[in-house]
Amino acid sequence: MNFPSLRIFITGLLLMLIGGIGLVPAHAQALPPTPHTPDLLGIYPGMPLSQAQAVLQQHSSTLYVRRDPSDSELSLSIAETKDIDLINVFMTQPPNAPYVGMVTREWSYAGGPGMTADALLAGLRQKYGKETLTSDRGGGGLYVYWLFDHSGKLLASADQTLQGCDGTALVGMLKVGPPVQPSDLQKACFAAFFAVRVFFNGGRGGSLLNGYTLQLTNMPYMYRAAVNVAKAKNANANKAQQDQLNRANKNKPTF
């Protein structure tokens, strides 16, 4: 092959490569790695979807983990007793790759052996250590918190403001993005609420529980995922607006 032909060949190859770049779909964004502890039933915030589904399935040999096709949320009802025991795993949304953002476990009494508040608290302390914060809001409602630093180390104390944080508030934001002007409480939660939170639902006399709601959430991690969603939505909206403007500029009337 002579030099002019070689230059033409190379030029054509480069044009094909450059043209092909625009045809390659954007890859999902990978969020920063997170510590593997604390975990809930072996599942931790930042765990990949496929791994989380496999780990959750290990907790039942008779029921399959359900996966919502719209947002990849996982759920499993553990049917070892008459009591209701439901696990939910909430995932980050595109353009993020699917990783665990929050894990919840909801147990309620339904005529089975039941559970006491003392037994529940003892099990949680064995798993996570001594709680960081406790909030008794009366009427049989008790909230207990285990808060962790960014590396997953249990904190002996923490800002009392963080008792107002609830990971479920961020589940919707994983799909649409965080508020443009977050409140002071939201700012505190987005910055530092990496926690296990349990709500004791009393009311059956003594220390017997009607139920409990437990959540493990890394809100700073979920917030980063929600920001990525907002950026992607803004970019798509800007592109759509620019495309419309370009079409309008080409729509020249005839006089």
Short précis:
The chain is an alpha+beta fold. The chain has 7 helices and 8 strands; from the N terminus they run H-H-E-E-E-E-H-E-E-H-H-H-E-E-H.
Describe this structure in words.
By secondary structure, the chain is of the alpha+beta class. The protein has one domain (28-235). It is built from 7 helices and 8 strands. Residues 1-26 have low confidence and may be disordered.
Tags for this entry?
255 residues; single chain; eight-stranded antiparallel sheet; alpha+beta; 8 strands; disordered N terminus; 35% helix; 7 helices
State the shape: globular
Structural class: alpha+beta
- Structural Rg: 25 Å
Extended strand count: 8
**What is the string of helix and strand elements?**
HHEEEEHEEHHHEEH
Number of domains: 1
Q: Would you spell out the secondary-structure blueprint of this structure?
A:
Blueprint: H1 3-21, H2 49-57, E1 66-67, E2 74-77, E3 84-91, E4 100-108, H3 117-128, E5 133-136, E6 141-147, H4 168-171, H5 173-176, H6 184-192, E7 194-201, E8 211-218, H7 219-250
Helix pairs in contact: 6-7
